[in-house]
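Need a sequence for this fold. Nothing fancy.
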């Protein structure tokens, strides 16, 4: 069985993330969407909220499991018996960062592979930071979020 981990802060999970999830589901038997606590990033939404958002967004994907984590990704991959990491790439700036992280993970666990997936062109501009900025100023984000997540945020993030 091909199991892959799609890690991230997902603050919040966006239609761009879901595009990557859909693509990954066509390649792997099981996707573990791993929501990192990421206290150092000072997320807008709590870890619990971000996990709930991800679960709501992926509830119709039978081969996706959502978990939270606070460890090194290589340790999580050992714990879950997963040797593939999925990462999304939107732009050259993403590539530089993701390549560095992929090499760092491989230095810690040589059999850990990182697979990079590009979102559809229509989602290439979507990022959690764009969504957070728009939310901060009270702008419209419905088109940038899975409908379940938008509804939860509109209801106070629950």
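Here you go.
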């Amino acid at each position: 069985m091909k199991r892959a981990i799609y890690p991230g802060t997902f603050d919040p999970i966006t239609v761009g993330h879901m595009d990557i999830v859909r693509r990954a589901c066509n390649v792997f038997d099981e996707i573990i969407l791993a929501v990192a606590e990421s206290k150092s990033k000072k997320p807008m939404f709590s870890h619990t909220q971000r996990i709930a958002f991800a679960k709501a967004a992926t509830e119709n994907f039978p081969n996706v499991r959502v978990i939270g984590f606070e460890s090194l990704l290589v340790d999580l991959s050992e714990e879950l018996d997963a040797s593939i990491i999925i990462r999304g790439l939107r732009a050259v700036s993403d590539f530089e960062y993701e390549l560095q992280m992929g090499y760092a993970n491989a230095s810690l666990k040589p059999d850990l592979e990182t697979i990079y997936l590009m979102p559809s062109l229509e989602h290439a501009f979507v990022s959690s930071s764009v969504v957070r900025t728009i939310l901060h100023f009270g702008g419209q984000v419905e088109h940038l979020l899975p409908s379940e997540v938008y509804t939860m945020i509109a209801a106070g993030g629950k």
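For context: The longest helix spans residues 92-108.
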